[in-house]
Design a protein that fits this description.
By secondary structure, the protein is of the alpha/beta class. It has helices spanning 37-44, 68-74, 90-98, 108-117, 133-145, 163-178, 190-196, 214-217, 220-227, and strands at residues 2-8, 15-20, 26-30, 51-58, 61-62, 75-78, 151-155, 182-186, 199-204, 207-212, 229-236, 239-246. It binds adenosine-5'-triphosphate. This is Iron ABC transporter.
Length: 248
């Protein structure tokens, strides 16, 4: 895919952001609060319109010119704040996610497949609002995975999750990329981003500050400018971890 956002109309939310990615990559979108991560993800999926000047291409086709059903067949999307669905059961909530999928991807087995992937089978009969925040996050991620689309767009997939489930979800997203999907995810945990992503896109005040391999993007200068932090890196057999301290 390639993305170029010159500007979103009448807004400075995103300006001059361009990057490319390909199937098989796990791309982390990082940046401080308000940097433009969610705006970028909604621009990718064609929801943030109108782009004043810009384009998003997948296999040389313009995503912005695709029909709604073509986009549903292309993207699995986890929003930052999913819409509320009232007092329905987890099972009904997931079934409602099957409705608009292409018929080939929407069989009853699909629900079982994602329930197993996220280990949420035990929650299926329970009312969704009765689950904890982290449990609900896993249900919403499960819904985003329904349909097995080739491009996953996840806005903070590990938000509200405990450490065990953060690692599980990051490993799952990594395995999707290893099996040929394109995964793009907004992430706040830079240690997890460095450990699991192939590529990072660092946004700062709506603009692209850096894009490339984690070690290159998470440089001392970029961390200072984008997050006002200084970091020590811890390298172990399990991977790298960042120990941040405030610069101001
Ligand atoms: N609907 C909107 N209309 C106008 N401006 C918006 C809208 N939504 C967000 N913004 C602004 O656009 C900028 C980028 O917001 P965005 O939600 O993309 O940031 P983010 O990097 O995802 O932040 P966070 O880490 O806090 O989730 C912010 O300054 C925000 O105030």
């Amino acid at each position: 895919m390639s993305l170029h956002v010159a500007q979103i109309a009448h807004s400075t939310r995103l300006q001059q952001v361009s990057f490319t990615a390909k199937a098989g990559q796990f791309v982390g979108i990082i940046g401080a609060n308000g940097a433009g991560k969610s705006s970028l993800l909604t621009a990718i999926t064609g929801q943030l319109m109108p782009l004043h000047q810009g384009s998003v291409h997948y296999n040389e086709r313009s995503v912005l010119h695709m029909s709604a059903s073509e986009r549903r067949a292309l993207f699995g999307y986890l929003p930052q704040s999913p819409a509320l669905h009232g007092d329905i059961s987890v099972s009904h909530f997931l079934q409602s996610g099957l409705v608009n999928l292409p018929a080939a991807n929407a069989g009853r087995d699909e629900l079982t497949r994602v329930a197993n992937l996220l280990a949420i089978t035990g929650f299926l009969p329970r009312p969704l609002p009765h689950l904890s925040g982290g449990e609900q996050r896993r249900i919403h991620l499960a819904r985003a995975l329904l349909g097995d689309q080739p491009w996953l767009v996840c806005d903070e997939p590990t938000a509200s999750l405990d450490l065990h489930h953060q690692l599980k979800v990051m490993a799952l997203l990594r395995s999707f990329a290893d099996n040929g999907k394109l995964v793009t995810a907004a992430l706040h945990d830079l240690s997890l981003a460095a450990r699991f992503c192939d590529k990072l896109v660092l946004l700062h005040e709506g603009r692209l500050m850096a894009c490339g391999e984690p070690a290159e993007v998470l440089s001392e200068a970029n961390l200072a400018r984008a997050f006002a932090i200084k970091a020590r890196w811890l390298c172990t057999e399990q991977g790298v971890a960042l120990l941040p301290t405030l610069l101001k």
